[in-house]
Design a protein that fits this description.
There is one protein chain. With 257 residues, the protein is of the alpha/beta class. It is 33% helix and 16% strand. The protein contains nine helices and ten strands. It has helices spanning 9-25, 39-50, 78-85, 107-121, 157-163, 182-186, 201-209, 233-236, 242-250; strands at 2-6, 29-32, 60-63, 65-67, 97-98, 126-129, 151-154, 176-179, 190-195, 227-232. The strands form two sheets. The chain has a seven-stranded parallel sheet with strand order 1-10-9-6-2-3-5. Strands 4-8-7 form a three-stranded antiparallel sheet, covered by helices on one side. Helix 2 (39-50) links the parallel strand 2 (29-32) and strand 3 (60-63). The radius of gyration is 17 Å and the shape is globular. The site of 2-amino-2-deoxy-6-O-phosphono-alpha-D-glucopyranose has 14 residues, from helix 5. 2-amino-2-deoxy-6-O-phosphono-alpha-D-glucopyranose is lined by residues 33-37, 64-65, 130-132, 138-139, 159, 163.
Length: 257
Amino acid sequence: MDILIRPDAEGVAAAAADILADYARRGATLGLATGSTPLGAYQELIRLYEAGEVSFADSTAFLLDEYVGLAPEHEQSYHHTIRHEFTSHVDFDDSRVHSPDGTAADPWVAAQEYEQAIIDHGGIDVQLLGIGTNGHIAFNEPGAALNGPTHVDTLQPQTIADNSRFFDRPEDVPIHVLTQGLGTIQRAGHLLLLATGEGKADAIAALAEGPLTTMCPASVLQSHPRATVIVDEAAASKLHHRDYHRFVEENKLPRKN
Ligand code: GLP
């Protein structure tokens, strides 16, 4: 796992956008994430697009997750959010921006269909991820199967509380979600996890320096052959090996691909 430490959220956004833009230039399949953390990276990608430095015309996107029960046009559905925050501001073909169907009559069937759609497409080249304060990635809460497929999950009270800021009332946050599983995520070619702020410091320490355990779903990045974690100083503040991560980055042999 590569851990890149940047001074602030802007530095995290710029580093993430650089990596994602390289994939987009190759027409890669991007795994997109919602939440507030990736917004800076999306804004930077929009800026690069407007400057003529990147195009998404040949890319396909798969979202990580969706709330069960929210229609695509609902303001807080991830279907709507990703368009509002990112894809509608660049030249992404809207029909190639996929997300799990939160209003399907049978969410478990919708989960299987989404998993199959990713497989049929040939997989995801780079998967962008945030992290919950409890160590969740996508909506895989502690206890999720380490190699599970896209599935229906039930949110923890902590996640409902964290996400209630996007809704009028905490009771409006859906309890059930559709999410790529930890197995789905691990099959992506490159995992790119972003975190900023002191509130994520414990989760980042658990991800990088704790045991690989379903109690911290993000710790599956430890077993992925190509995982990049980009954090600001605040989110890195509880890493014991901060100096070593800086040393590794300063002395990195550049990859040829
Ligand atoms: C939600 C999303 C996750 C995201 C997490 C953290 O639960 N399903 O994909 O990583 O929130 O969000 P934020 O970046 O706003 O802290």
